[in-house]
Amino acid sequence: MRRPLSIMRANADEGWLEFLYKPVGAGLAHLARRSVGDRVSLLGPIGRGFEPDPERSTVLAIGGGVGIPPIYFLAEKLKDRSASKLLVLMGSEVPFPFKLGESSSGLEGIPSDVSAHVADLEAWGISSRLASNAGYAGCYEGVVTELARCWLAVLPPERLEDVQIVSCGPMPMLAAAATLARDYGLPCQIAVEEYMACGVGGCAGCTILVRTAAGPAMKRVCVDGPVFEARDVFPL
After folding, report:
1. pLDDT by position in tens, the chain (length 236)
2. 8 Å CB contact between 166 and 195
3. Interatomic CA distance for residues 62 and 144, integer angstroms
4. CATH architecture entry for 7-35+49-233
């Protein structure tokens, strides 16, 4: 069966897609053994993605683990929008699979020794910082949502009114992002990770409980998501 993978980069003019994944399990191990020129069966893109609020121009993007690729994808799509300001925070317990650099300038609220960034994002004019509990140089020691709280904590009310959060990662991280948004009164969209079988909404194997106007309902991640409002997945 197919495996659900997030697109990290895409170029429609040149006709290519780029994925980032860890070959854990038989399916992804099989995919990792493919060579240039091999054919693979794809279905997509499916579902709905992030839809940043145009009324809030500052996007705090938080990615963790295998939730990093959609954040990278979103950053590249937003980099040319002059009206958008973007801060990307990424967390990982394994080495970051990007070329990293060290920032010489600080970011408000971020500890001065947290200087590691993703080189591509900085080249695009996008500020980024990294978090890990693995002791990597220049990374915040702790979870990435704690690093996000450091930044939010120093923003004055008029700046907070312009901020929105988007996040993708494991459920505990998304729950922490939802709490962060609730604490600071910010809108937050989350991309949920879930196993999928058919990918077209027929098998209902990827459903999660979501709050709706009509009450609690089971929603299919593959077609109704994977992006949901954080408050609907993690209600008070």
Report:
1. 788 899 999 999 999 999 998 888 898 999 999 998 999 888 888 999 999 999 999 999 999 998 999 999 999 999 887 667 999 999 999 999 899 999 988 899 999 999 999 999 999 999 999 999 999 999 999 999 999 999 999 999 999 999 999 999 999 999 999 999 999 999 999 999 888 889 999 998 999 999 999 999 999 999 999 999 999 999 97
2. no
3. 7
4. 3-Layer(aba) Sandwich (3.40)
Q: What is the pTM of this model?
A: 0.94
Tokens 């990615």, residue located: 63
Q: Domain residues of the chain, as ranges?
A: 7-35+49-233
Closest CA to 128 of 66, 60, 51, 81: 60
Q: Could you tell me if 178 and 172 are in contact, meaning their C-beta atoms sit under 8 angstroms apart?
A: no
Q: Which are the contacts of 28, defined by CB distance < 8 A and separation ≥ 6? A: 3, 21, 22
